[in-house]
């Protein structure tokens, strides 16, 4: 338990008692924005969340959940569930995904690492393949990083480069893939003039090709495998820009759902299948949608679909995507070292913990919360419960998802009095928000609010404390806007739906019969963010946070 010789003991809080049951609820994708018809949280009936906001002003506030507050490079970077839960659990801000890659590229450290040296062994005789999301969205990948990596590899001996693109339209505007493909094509053309054989080899939309997650649908990964590795796809084109423009004209097709295509030469032969001896890099920095393709590329023993052939390649991820599975075993950029998380401290100080969500966010409330670490700190002190998510449907079809089941598990854990911390993630507003279905997202927000009530009622019964917050925005703004904040219209005069996360702050509310009188949010932490929540929760468990944690949001004033 813990590192040897390290003192895990937390100081007692001078004014707050130990032993209270703390119900910790994370609403996924629940930000705070101006009330209008595109704010699904505002439109939905959410009496419980409304009551927190309208209640005691000293027990409700907003915190930052994007940009530098969660370790991302700029204030234009939307938060996401991974960095959000890292910050909530770690109590400190760590440089994340994009930032780590930026710094490794800038300093050249990337090219000195074990991962790059490994793939470089293929350069003299074979092809370097790059697979990932073609986007400047900054959530899973960034186009400028891809271009720098292509440049760096070509300067270090890569003579033949093939890029396998996945079009976005989820974190960025639908239709923007054409421009990204043109930018990439132009750069590869410059390299060809310098004698490097560099071209795009295949493509497809991110939600239909390669980028599935949580083993939801292996068919998505297989479509990618067939195009990228085997060079087989239903659509063949001479160049990628033409491919995207043509395929986008088909009914029910968008960037997210573009069917797979391969690029062929004048004889109709695919220009870039992956063969023995080649090097492959998956260049996304965000892990969740790379784990499945990583398994297909890395595991000799693999039964999720018929790979037809399994080339002997040198494969590396941009980062390691799963620390527990050590997947992939080779990667270009080292992960943030997140140590001494609040979960580990609290477990060590006798706080018994229950954590629960459904499949799509279970990893967030456990693995990411605990600093990108799988499993228990102490199985005697912790219980984690995963409720299977609906599979084979999009989440707007069943927008209530498993909110009630999660809430009932939490309620039972609270009423059992076996745990001092009961922690859940309610995914509805995020997962349904991503579908762009406004009506379904309204239903999702109501369902999440009803789930909060079930948990709060249990906290009331045991004389406990609740903390309700979120990891980033999504459902509070479902429309794209111009600089003045007015909704953007497409050429047919319809509003342009926003399916992505947002830059909005998120609420945090505290309360419950166990909350000591005089506890209130401080006025002197105006820029508080998700990382401040950990110290706050430690206080509510009766402990002072470690000195290097981001400061607590609460104080105790003598009445």
From TrEMBL:
One of its GO terms (molecular function) is phosphoglycerate mutase activity. Mn(2+) 2 binds at residues 28, 81, 471-472. It is an enzyme of class 5 (isomerase). InterPro entries: Alkaline_phosphatase_core_sf, BPG-indep_PGM_N, Metalloenzyme, PGAM_B_sf, Pgm_bpd_ind. Its cofactor is Mn(2+). It comes from Prunus armeniaca (Apricot). Mn(2+) 1 binds at residues 430, 434, 501. Residues 20-544 form the Metalloenzyme domain. It comes from the Eukaryota. This is 2,3-bisphosphoglycerate-independent phosphoglycerate mutase. It catalyses: (2R)-2-phosphoglycerate = (2R)-3-phosphoglycerate. Its main location: cytoplasm.
